[in-house]
Amino acid sequence: MKGKKCRVIEDYKSPYTDPFLIKEGEILMIGKKDSEWSGWIWCTNKFGDSRWVPENYLEIKGKIGKAKQNYNATELSVNIGEELIIKEEEAEWFWVINQLGKSGWVPIKNVQIIDE
To answer: Residue 106 is part of a domain; what is its CATH number?
Structure first.
């Protein structure tokens, strides 16, 4: 899917306004698994900030997680009809870039791949 274009078929509004960045090797407190989206875990950093993180990006031991790689938890708000470029896929979400150059995660169910 990487590099393919997609079109938004259902609006998505991010519930988060502030960035949440994790560095490789960072230690996080592990919370609950997402009941709606398989493969995502609620994590809290040393500053008390929390966000969903892909389980695949973590080395988990009990309630402690260590980031295997850098991670940006930004979710992108999108509207029907927008065209996006897919950069990454993880646990039913795409990391995309919009036509204004903004990037973030959107649910795969909210977009449709454009055949070219």
So the answer is: 2.30.30.40
